[in-house]
Automatic annotation (TrEMBL):
It comes from the Eukaryota. One of its GO terms (molecular function) is single-stranded RNA binding. Residues 10-68 form the RNA polymerase Rpb7-like N-terminal domain. This is DNA-directed RNA polymerase subunit. The lineage of its organism: Eukaryota, Viridiplantae, Streptophyta, Embryophyta, Tracheophyta. Its main location: nucleus. Belongs to the eukaryotic RPB7/RPC8 RNA polymerase subunit family.
Length: 176
């Protein structure tokens, strides 16, 4: 699900980048905020950070004693992506294994669909393995699959989410 969030942040501008021109200062603040944002990746609460939509406010700068750099408190709005239990999404298969498949959905790269959660599908081993249903529907590499999220896990060290998904439900499976 896409979320619109408002986030506080502290932007540090090196002393050599400070300029009396207000427009140049705003440009430096925005540039630094975008650099910080790009490295942020994701948080457990908000999900994956995709884009800054607006810079809502810039607070008064405070000079840091040791370096002479200036810290500006800012508030910005951003779009994030986070998966929730019970949500129906679509993902692309990127790996087919004997016991299930791995999918990607937006920035989430570790979504596992177990063969146990694919009713009516059976694994066919080959050079390019597939799961085939009784109705001749195929789940193979690069196929788009509609699924329901049955669980998520946040990995703090990697700053990413993992998900366990299922095809048990109506209108779930490969998308034509």
């Amino acid at each position: 699900m896409f979320l619109k969030v408002q986030c506080p942040w502290n932007v540090i501008i090196p002393a050599e980048n400070l300029d009396a021109n207000e427009l140049m200062l705003q440009k430096s603040i925005i540039t630094r905020l975008l650099e910080d944002f790009a490295g942020k990746r994701a948080t457990k609460e908000l999900g994956y950070f995709l884009a800054i939509t607006t810079l809502d406010s810039i607070g008064e700068g405070k000079v840091r004693q040791n370096t002479g750099d200036v810290l500006f408190p800012v508030v910005y709005s951003a779009i994030t992506f986070k998966i929730f239990r019970g949500e129906v999404l679509e993902g692309v298969v990127h790996k087919v294994l004997k016991h299930g498949v791995f999918l990607r959905c937006g920035p989430v790269e570790h979504i596992y669909l177990s063969s146990v959660k694919m009713p009516d599908y059976r694994h066919l081993p080959a050079e390019n393995p597939v799961f085939l249903s009784d109705k001749m529907s195929k789940i193979e590499k690069d196929v788009v699959v509609r699924f329901i999220v049955i669980g998520t896990k946040w990995l703090e060290a990697e700053r990413e989410f993992q998900a366990l998904v299922s095809l048990e439900g109506d209108y779930l499976g490969p998308v034509s």
